[in-house]
Amino acid sequence: MIDEKGILFVLSGPSGVGKGTVRKELFEQDTDLRYSISMTTRNIRPGETDGVDYFYKTKEEFETLIDQNQLLEYAQYVNNYYGTPREYVEKTLAEGHDVFLEIEVQGALQVKENFPEGVFIFLFPPSLEELKNRIVSRGTETEDLVINRLKAARDEIEMMDAYDYVVVNDRVDHAVEKVQSIIQSEHCKRERIEKQYKRILEDETK
Questions:
Q1: Among 32, 79, 105, 205, which residue carries the largest CB count within 10 Å?
Q2: Is 6 annotated as ligand-binding?
Q3: 20 is in an annotated binding site
Q4: 83 labelled as ligand-binding?
């Protein structure tokens, strides 16, 4: 029996591409994945649970973790920190569970720097026109903000080279199927299986 470690899968892509929608649909179908719980310094809200919705920390605690390189990525929004705790991810992977992280492009590039053994999936819009339509249809963005988001999306699409896979989000169900195929194929990679067998053989020859 191969005692396999889990794999960290990172889904990323430009704002408006539908990362959250794909992730929700994926989790409705695939219960074996563990969602990466983020850490934050914002106050806990009614109905939220520490260790389920977020890991809640003080600003001082969070900054100590930054200094100790205990975050795979972090960012600051409106005076609060948000980040991905290394300890939770590594512990969950060691228990044999795959961990799934859905994140913005800048955060994904930070994760790649700190955890290069992860598998990085870029969710791609069918076209920039379609991306614009999705951003506009939210109804929450001003004309200037839509233009800025599209400029940022163009810049982020140029960072696609840093990723292992690209999935076009033309239809959510198709995109989910492709992500599931990537997860399966990564577990069947010769290099991963080989590492496990080498460990078994070493144990048996001791």
A1: 105
A2: no
A3: yes
A4: no
CATH 3.40.50.300 location in the chain? 1-33+98-206
Q: Is 206 assigned to a binding site? A: no
10 is in an annotated binding site: no
Token pair, residue 46, equals 């009614």
Quote the pTM value: 0.84
The CATH architecture annotation of domain 1-33+98-206 reads: 3-Layer(aba) Sandwich (3.40)
Triad 53, 171, 188: Cα angle to 5°: 70
Flag whether 14 is marked binding. yes
Domain 37-96 architecture: 2-Layer Sandwich (3.30)
Average confidence (pLDDT) over 121-137: 84
96 is an annotated ligand-binding site residue: no
pLDDT digits (tens, 9 = 90+) for 147-193: 887 888 888 888 999 999 999 999 999 999 999 999 999 988 877 77
Q: Which two tokens stand for residue 56?
A: 């809640």
Task: Consult the annotation and say whether 125 binds a ligand.
Answer: no
